[in-house]
Every structure is written in structure tokens, then in C-alpha cells.
């Protein structure tokens, strides 16, 4: 059996509020630290703790970051979706499953690794709530052993994730080690997937789209940020506020050289941006589809009065309230022509994004030829 090196997709099926985000981030960071091009995508509906969620990690030696149509490795942690998740795996697929979860018979051309995760947690903690949160680290250890993800990189990624919480860090390290040990002693590797060190990430950082947008805004010289929280854009301003607090203070006085204001609604937010722009500040706001709809009239005013402003549209499925946790790219045309009445379409700098994790900005080819009058920019 020929090995498949640094070219696989891991799909984790679990539930909201189970602590799986930490486990998945550790896997993602460890692969990145090994120099392997990697990307992560969270898929979850608008729901409360205990309902289904999925996370996909794609490792690609060629640098591909989009999700694939199928997955190579499935981690089954949710009994409610287990049968459907397993049925979606094709021939040669690898299934790592919590042994307490019952599934229909699996075709012989799939590879199943059953792991007694609850039993492994018994020696780590007696706290029932902590067991529920830390059990995900068992599959981190199992996958690290099966796929050859370097132990030191798993530990470094875990330290980076939980380093400020020593008690939680110790518990999670113990769970990862339990997964490693069990896989090493009880699971015979029968699949071709392997992770090996590369040097493809030199000079790169692992970052999601909203954090990248926040960095861009800071380096672009933003001084006034006004916003109203709305999924999935909230983390952009939250992250930007942290960057500004760290890097935008007067070294002599320690005073902030910026302003971040949470407005009472989206209309107030864009009004404040235009007021700041009129006064000469580099001002921006961040929102999503419903917020853009509310901001449309003020955006038209910004165009007509030629007031500099930046509006980030972190898109979600619409129309109306839509689906807050489902990212989309359906606002591009609306962002291009937003506002009513006689206006120049080119005033909006349109952009596309497959998700808030990977935005790609573009400028419509005809805009600069037709008109250069507008300074209001919308990044969708």
C-alpha cells in the first residue's frame, strides 16, 4: 500500500459546546507548524450547545485550501449524526470512532479504528463536566499517532492554546497522551495517510479572514472604529480592538490614539463613521448582510457628499435575517450598487469571500474607468 503524504482531509463530527474547537485548533496548528499547507473550516448551524457541528481540516502539500468534496479521515463523536456521517465516507476512508457510539455495519473497504475514549478518560479526571470537555483531546492523540503528526508540535500547539490555564493544560496534555498511548499499543495502522515535515509555511502565519482584515485595517491606519455586533462579523472588530490596544498607544503618555465605539445599531454605526470621515479620521465599520441593508441610506449619503469611509461586509446567507452562521458571497452585487436613487455604481469596491476565514478582495474591472468620484469603500 503506497503512502499518501501530506494530502488528506480530516472531518470531525461533534456537537456545539463540547470543547472540540480547542482540539481541532491544536490539530490545525500542529500540521501548520510541521510546515504543511493546511486550512480549517467550521460548519455549524445557528443552534445551541449540544447540537451538531463539523470541522474540516485539509492538509495539502500543493497548497490547496478549499474544502474537498469528500473526506479521507472521519472522527465520529456525535451519535445523532454518526450513521449519516459514516455513510458519507467513500471506499478507503478512515473512521475513528468513540466506541460507545453505535453505527450500522461498515463496508469492508472502509477502515475503522474504534477507541474506548470514555474509559481512557477515567484515569484523567473524575469530574463529569471536565470529562465531556477534555475527551476530544483523546482523538487528537489518536490521530497524531496514526497520521504521524509530530508529538512535539502537538504539545507546542496545545501550550499555545491553553498556556495561560495551567490546570486545563495539564488535563488536556494527559488526554492527548492517553490517545497516543492507546493508538500506539492497540491500533494497527491500516490506512495510507501520513503527515511528514515540509518547509512550505516559511514566512507565513495561520490566521482566519476576520483577523487578517483586522490586521489590514490597523496597518491601513484606521483611527476610528464604530460597530454593532452581528454574526459572522463581530470577531473582526473584537480582534482589531485587541490589536489597537497593543500597538496604537502613545509611547510617552500611554493614551490611546484611536477610538472603538459600539453603537446602538448599524444605522448609528455608519453615521458615526461618516461623521469621523468628515472630520478627517480614517474610519470604518464592520457588519453583515442585514446590517448592510440598514446602512444603505447612509452609504448613499457618503457617496453623494464624497466622505471617505470603509464598510466591511462579512457575508452570511440571506435574504432578511438569513442564516447567521452560514457564510456566503451573495452580497457582491448589492454592495456594488448599495443605496437607492441616482448614484454611481463604482463607488463600492466589491469583494468576494468564500468564508470569513478566507476573504479575497477584488475590484470590478469597469469601476475605475467609469468614475473616480467616490471614496466610500465596501469590502464584501
Flag low-confidence runs.
Answer: 350-374
Helices and strands, in order, run as: EEHEEEHEEHHHHHEHEHEHEHEEEHEEHE
Radius of gyration, taken over Cα atoms and rounded to an integer in Å: 24 Å
Give the N-terminus to C-terminus distance in angstroms.
Answer: 46 Å
CATH class of the largest domain: Alpha Beta
The proportion of residues forming helix, as a percent range, comes to 25-40%
How many DSSP E strands? Answer: 17
Number of helix segments?
13
Q: Give the overall silhouette.
A: elongated
Q: Would you give the CATH topology of the largest domain?
A: Pyruvate-ferredoxin Oxidoreductase, domain 3
How does the major sheet shape up?
Answer: 6 strands, mixed
CATH superfamily of the largest domain: Pyruvate-ferredoxin oxidoreductase, PFOR, domain III
Residue-averaged pLDDT: 88
CATH architecture of the largest domain: 3-Layer(aba) Sandwich
Strand order of the largest sheet: 3-4-2-5-6-7
Protein architecture, described:
Helix 1 packs across helix 6 (151-162), helix 5 (136-147) packs across helix 7 (166-186) and helix 6 packs antiparallel against helix 7 (166-186). The protein folds into 2 domains: 4-194, Pyruvate-ferredoxin Oxidoreductase, domain 3; 209-379, 3-Layer(aba) Sandwich (Rossmann fold), CATH 3.40.50.970. The protein has a 6-stranded mixed beta sheet. Strands 10-9-11-12-17 form a 5-stranded parallel beta sheet, sandwiched between helices. A two-stranded parallel sheet has the order 1-8. 37% of the residues lie in helices and 20% in strands. Helix 9 links the parallel strand 9 (224-227) and strand 10. It has helices at 20-33, 82-87, 117-121, 128-134, 136-147, 151-162, 166-186, 209-219, 234-247, 266-278, 289-305, 332-337, 367-370, and strands spanning 4-5, 7-15, 38-43, 52-60, 73-76, 94-98, 111-115, 193-194, 224-227, 259-262, 283-287, 309-313, 316-317, 323-327, 351-353, 359-361, 376-379. It is an alpha/beta fold. The relative contact order is 0.10.
Amino acid at each position: 500500500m503506497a503512502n499518501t503524504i501530506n494530502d488528506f482531509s480530516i472531518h470531525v463530527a461533534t456537537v456545539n459546546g463540547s470543547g472540540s474547537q480547542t482540539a481541532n485548533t491544536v490539530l490545525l496548528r500542529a500540521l501548520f507548524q510541521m510546515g504543511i499547507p493546511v486550512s480549517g473550516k467550521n460548519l455549524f448551524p445557528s443552534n445551541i450547545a449540544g447540537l451538531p457541528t463539523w470541522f474540516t481540516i485539509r492538509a495539502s502539500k500543493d497548497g490547496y485550501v478549499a474544502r474537498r468534496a469528500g473526506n479521507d479521515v472521519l472522527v465520529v463523536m456525535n451519535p445523532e449524526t454518526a450513521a449519516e456521517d459514516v455513510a458519507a465516507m467513500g471506499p478507503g476512508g478512515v473512521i475513528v470512532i468513540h466506541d460507545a457510539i453505535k453505527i450500522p455495519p461498515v463496508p469492508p473497504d472502509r477502515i475503522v479504528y474504534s477507541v474506548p475514549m470514555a474509559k481512557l478518560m477515567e484515569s484523567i479526571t473524575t469530574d463529569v463536566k471536565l470529562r465531556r470537555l477534555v475527551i476530544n483531546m483523546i482523538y487528537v492523540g489518536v490521530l497524531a499517532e496514526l497520521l504521524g503528526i509530530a508529538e512535539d508540535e502537538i504539545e507546542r500547539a496545545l501550550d499555545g492554546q491553553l498556556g495561560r490555564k495551567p490546570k486545563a493544560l495539564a488535563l488536556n496534555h494527559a488526554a492527548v497522551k492517553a490517545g497516543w498511548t492507546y493508538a500506539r499499543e492497540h491500533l494497527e495502522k491500516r490506512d495510507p495517510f501520513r503527515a511528514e515535515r515540509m518547509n512550505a509555511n516559511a514566512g507565513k502565519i495561520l490566521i482566519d479572514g476576520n483577523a487578517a482584515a483586522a490586521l489590514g485595517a490597523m496597518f491601513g491606519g484606521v483611527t476610528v472604529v464604530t460597530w454593532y455586533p452581528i454574526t459572522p462579523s463581530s470577531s473582526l472588530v473584537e480582534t482589531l480592538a485587541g490589536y489597537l490596544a497593543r500597538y496604537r498607544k502613545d509611547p510617552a503618555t500611554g493614551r490611546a490614539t484611536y477610538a472603538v465605539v459600539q453603537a446602538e445599531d448599524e444605522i448609528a454605526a455608519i453615521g458615526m463613521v461618516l461623521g469621523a470621515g468628515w472630520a478627517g479620521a480614517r474610519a470604518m465599520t464592520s457588519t453583515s448582510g442585514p446590517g448592510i441593508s440598514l446602512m444603505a441610506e447612509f452609504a448613499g449619503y457618503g457617496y453623494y457628499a464624497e466622505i471617505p469611509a470603509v464598510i466591511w461586509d462579512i457575508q452570511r446567507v440571506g435574504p432578511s435575517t438569513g442564516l447567521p452562521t452560514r457564510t456566503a458571497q451573495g452580497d457582491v452585487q448589492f454592495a456594488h450598487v448599495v443605496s437607492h436613487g441616482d448614484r454611481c455604481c463604482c463607488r463600492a469596491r466589491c469583494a468576494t469571500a468564500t468564508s470569513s476565514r478566507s476573504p479575497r478582495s477584488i475590484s470590478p474591472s469597469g469601476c475605475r474607468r467609469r468614475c473616480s468620484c467616490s471614496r466610500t469603500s465596501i469590502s464584501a
